[in-house]
Amino acid sequence: MNASPLPSSTPSSLEALNDWVAEVAALTNPDSIHWCDGSDAEFDALVAGMQADGTLLPLNQDTHPGSWLHRSDPDDVARVEHLTFVCYEKEEDAGPNNNWMAPAEAHAKIDALFDGCMRGRTMYVIPYCMGPIDSPLSRCGVEITDSPYVVANMRLMTRMGADAQARIEREGSFVRGLHSTGELDPDRRYIMHFPDELSIKSYGSGYGGNALLGKKCHALRIASHQARSEGWLAEHMLIVGIENPQGETHYIAAAFPSACGKTNLSMLIPPDAYREKGWKVWTVGDDICWMRPGEDGRLYAINPEAGYFGVAPGTSAKSNPNALASIQHDTIFTNVAVTDDNQPWWEGLDDRVPARDWQGRDYVAGGGKAAHPNSRFTVSAKQCPSYSPQAEAAQGVPISAIVFGGRRASLVPLVFEARDWTHGVLVGASMGSETTAAATGQVGVMRRDPMAMKPFCGYNFADYFGHWLSFDKPGAQLPKVFHVNWFRKGDGGDFLWPGFGDNLRVLEWMIGRVKGEAGAVDTAIGALPRPEDLNLDGVELSDEARDKLFGFDPEGWRSEFDGIGEYLAGYGERAPEALLAEHARIAKRLGG
Ligand code: GTP
Ligand code: SPV
Ligand code: MN
């Protein structure tokens, strides 16, 4: 794809960067090398090239100006956890939560795939910064890729180009990410991480989480390892600001597994009665949160990303008007369906009937989903109407509450509060959730997904739990910890809680707890609100819904705690004593 003229290459003043680029070029043999400057002209030239070769298809430019559709290879539509490896010298450092390979073996295996793989192609060098360019909490990386689709997405998702390169040259160090789409053969596909080398190698997939290396590979797997040694946290969390009618804003960070509601909660629109009173919601981040203790002992958080790679299905004017408003222009859609006038469409958007499905085939009603269940939009965060001005703040935002949650059809109530930090860490470590289409494999199977980091923690979970516990020290002003479940189902199989905008009612209760104002009852699993402790004005709940959303089932929790105990035992001697003791205390109170 050299059809369009791109600005000329500008090698770096940093020798280590030039050397690495030269080394990669010698291995991969590209026809040309392009150093990305992040300019509009560069983006336009890339898009023109991709339009010329069919990588991007123009959508209806009257209704969706500047928007494009990309159709993936049908075998390359989600993260591939079974092909994702964390490579330390010692297997125990990766832990039972990761696939492990020794670094030398991993390099040899994947370098054999990279050998000559960019012949006939352009190699792009993408300097990027995760987090505001002037923030001490931010970290930089360079991704080398042969995919212009990756370059365009990285431009929307990160601070990419000349400013990032200047910071890298000042700092002298950066995370190295090498990516090639390869042949898109699932048998020749690996996502490898080398935390001790601060490097990533990804071959054979063009899908977001496998290919946009700033996101899960850097900002979660590599960063979680860095964060452990530097005393901070890299988490799979949204960050949202809740402004009350008095004008106070509380920031909440929430960890839900992939496709379990982070984007939606981060952009929620308050119910009418709340809006009329003056409640406002501010989006800081929808997927990743880096946080560290500030001088006052509170945790301060930044969103390392600059865009959203959001789940399309289910996004509508009713469920998430802010997301829908964000994606009306200058958006890349991946694997959505289209209407007969070439507008993007997905299940749950509206009642129009699409013309073509995500693979471009004529859509037949009743013949399966039109959009892929993991179809996504990529858009700059600045296009979101609720984008918080504090999202660009170098010092980050102070976190008042941390929320864990998952998809649990049964047992788990709408919300409860952990007694203290140690209990909160146990609540996070025991999270369970039903799997979704964000990763290949079976959907709807309950699995343990501690802190929503099962696919993303770059080291042994036992050490990670210990790292979380270590934040509780003299002088710390830690957030309160909660657990939510928007996905509780009734006997009829329907969701019992309306969710979306109404989730603000639960967040209001949490803020009330933080301020010592809201009521709750103590149980073995933590403090549960009674229905009267929440503002439920205007919410219709059946008797079954009230019982299940606010009820506590000791019998069910006893067996849940048995399961949690077995899970933690899987980490052996390495599991922190304090976490096991907390589990034992609660299990005893449950009579287990
Ligand atoms: P990743 O980007 O994969 O990390 O996911 P995410 O956590 O940002 O998920 P997202 O907010 O995109 O939600 C995924 C799915 O959950 C969508 O189909 C939503 O419609 C649905 N969802 C989100 N919030 C709620 C809720 O409060 N109730 C119900 N029932 N569904 C919800
Ligand atoms: C997730 O799967 O949690 C995502 C999408 O946020 S991806 O970046 O592709 O991993
Ligand atoms: Mn995610």
UniProtKB/TrEMBL annotation:
Keywords: Cytoplasm, Decarboxylase, Gluconeogenesis, GTP-binding, Lyase, Manganese, Metal-binding, Nucleotide-binding. GTP binds at A259, C260, G261, K262, T263, N264, R376, R407, F500, G501, D502, N503. It is found in: Cytoplasm. Mn(2+) binds at K216, H236, D287. Substrate binds at R79, Y207, G208, G209, S258, N374, S375, R376. The keyword Kinase does not apply. Binds 1 Mn(2+) ion per subunit. Its EC number is 4.1.1.32. Pathway: Carbohydrate biosynthesis; gluconeogenesis. InterPro entries: PEP_carboxykin_GTP_CS (IPR018091), PEP_carboxykinase_C (IPR013035), PEP_carboxykinase_GTP (IPR008209), PEP_carboxykinase_GTP_C (IPR035077), PEP_carboxykinase_GTP_N (IPR035078), PEP_carboxykinase_N (IPR008210). Belongs to the phosphoenolpyruvate carboxykinase [GTP] family. PANTHER family: PHOSPHOENOLPYRUVATE CARBOXYKINASE (PTHR11561), PHOSPHOENOLPYRUVATE CARBOXYKINASE [GTP]-RELATED (PTHR11561:SF0). Monomer. Catalyzes the conversion of oxaloacetate (OAA) to phosphoenolpyruvate (PEP), the rate-limiting step in the metabolic pathway that produces glucose from lactate and other precursors derived from the citric acid cycle. This is Phosphoenolpyruvate carboxykinase [GTP]. The lineage of its organism: Bacteria, Pseudomonadati, Pseudomonadota, Gammaproteobacteria, Lysobacterales. The gene is pckG.
